[in-house]
Amino acid sequence: MSIVLSCPSCSTRYRANPESIGATGRRVRCASCGHVWTAEAEIPTVQDAPQVEPAAETPAAPEPESMPHKAFRARQERKRHTLSMAAAGGAWGGLLAACMVLFVCAWIFRVDVVTLWPRASSAYAAVGATVNPYGFSVGELDIRRDTAHGVPLLVVEGDIHNFDRRARAVPGLRAILRDEHGESLLEWQISMPAGDVLAGRRRTFSTVVSDPPPEAVEVEVLLMARAATGNAEPEADPEAHAPGPDHSEPSHDAPAAAAPEDQHASSDHH
Fold first, then answer.
1. What backbone torsions phi and psi does residue 123 show, to the nearest 5 degrees?
2. In what helix (H) or strand (E) does residue 81 lie, and over which residues does it extend?
C-alpha cells in the first residue's frame, strides 16, 4: 500500500511508502521547486474506507444430514404402497377363489341343494342342467306298437340316469297315457327291480300296455318319491285305470304331473 504526497508550494504529487514516512512524519524536499516540508503518513480510517454493499442473502443449503431422511421416507412410502397393492390383490384373489369354490360345491352337491331348496332347480335349469331332489333323470323313450295273438300292444322302453355324486336306490316309475288335449287316459306303475344305481350309471326299463286306448297320443314317465319295490307289473286294464269324470283319484305316492320338481319323459305316438 502506498500514499500520495503533495507539495504545498507547487502542488507536485509524489507516491511514497507510508513506512518510510513513519508515524510521526518526516521532512521531505520537493524535487520540482525545492520546497521543504514535513510530510505525515495519512492512513485511511474505517470511515474513509469504501462502503461495500452486503451480498444478497442466498437460501440456506439443506443440511447434509436431512437428505438421508428424505430418501428413507420415500422408500417407506413406496414400501407402504406396494404392501397396499398386494393386500388389495390378495383380497380380490381370495374373493374370486371363494366364488369358484362356491360354484363347484353348488354343482357337486346340486341334488342336496335342490332337496333343501326346491326353487333352486330353476337356477340350474337356467344354465341347462336338469336337477331334482330324486337324483335321477328319465332319458328319451322308445315307443312302438305291436300285436300279440291279435291283441294290440304298446311297448315303452327307456332308461333312468343317476346324476348324483353317490349311489341311489332305484326310484319307482309311473307311466301316463294322454290324449291330444293332455288329459290322462291311463296310469300305471312300471316294474323296476329294487336295488341301487351307482353314481353316473343308468338303469333301463320296459313296460307293455295291452289294448291301449286308441285316442292316446302321448306317453309320459314320472319319477316317484318312493323307491322301486321290484314287484311284478300287472297287466294294464284301460277300463279299470282310465279316470272317470267324477271319481278319478291320483296315486298318493306319485308326484302330480304339473309339479315343477317332477322329472319325466314323454313321447308322442300314433
1. -65, -40
2. helix 66-108
Of 126, 141, 134, 159, the residue nearest 268 (C-alpha): 141
Q: Which residues contact 191 (CB under 8 A, 6 or more apart)?
A: 207, 228, 230, 231, 232, 233
Grid coordinates standing for 183? 288329459
Number of helices and strands in the chain (H, E): 5, 14
pTM of this structure = 0.46
Task: Report the candidate in 174, 167, 223, 222 with the shortest Cα–Cα distance to residue 195.
Answer: 167
Question: What's the grid cell of residue 115?
Answer: 332337496
Letter for the amino acid at 204?
T
Examine the pLDDT at 54 and tell me if it is beyond 70. Answer: no
Spatial distance between the Cα atoms of 135 and 154, rounded to a whole number of angstroms: 28
Q: pLDDT, tens digit, for every residue of 1-27?
A: 677 778 888 888 877 777 777 777 778
| 147 sits in which H/E element | strand 142-148
Is residue 184 pLDDT above 90, yes or no? yes
Would the pLDDT of 208 be above 80?
A: yes
